[in-house]
Amino acid sequence: MAQQPSVSFAVKRVYDAPDPDDGRRVLVDRLWPRGISKQQAHIDEWLKAITPSNDLRRWFHADPQHRGSEFASRYRTELEDEEHRQGLEHLRELRASGPVTLVTAVKDVAHSHIPVLLAQFGDELP
User: Fold this and answer.
1) Exposed, middle or buried, 107 (CB in 10 Å: 0-12/13-18/19+)?
2) Tens digits of per-residue pLDDT, 63-73?
């Protein structure tokens, strides 16, 4: 029996309108996005456990143009701890049950924690 290919995650900014095709909408930011209510965001789950730590997030935001590769390396290390592994496993289970959209407030998704997170599942940004 052939193994079913895994479904890729969709990625959207929280400020984009939700769509019925989004499936489960999972916020993958450590902080709640500014200027949007929980009702407007249409978030099904908020998985803080898979986001970069506050210290790492603050360090990266101090100089994102020069710290990208080091940030990615440090975040991959954080993703190996127990709390992050449990969060990743939960996200894997969600994806196995249907479409999942990772929702974030970051302006530059390509230069954020999202590509590192997607790589944990063998995915990449479209």
Assistant:
1) exposed
2) 998 999 999 99
Diameter over CA atoms, the chain: 50
Euclidean distance between the first and the last CA atom of the chain, given in angstroms as a whole number: 29
pLDDT digits (tens, 9 = 90+) for 31-46: 999 999 988 999 999 9
Q: Could you tell me if 125 and 36 are in contact, meaning their C-beta atoms sit under 8 angstroms apart?
A: no
The whole-model pTM stands at 0.89
* Residue 36 resides in a domain: yes
Q: Report the number of distinct structural domains present in the chain.
A: 1
66 by Cβ neighbours in 10 Å (0-12 / 13-18 / 19+) ranks as: exposed
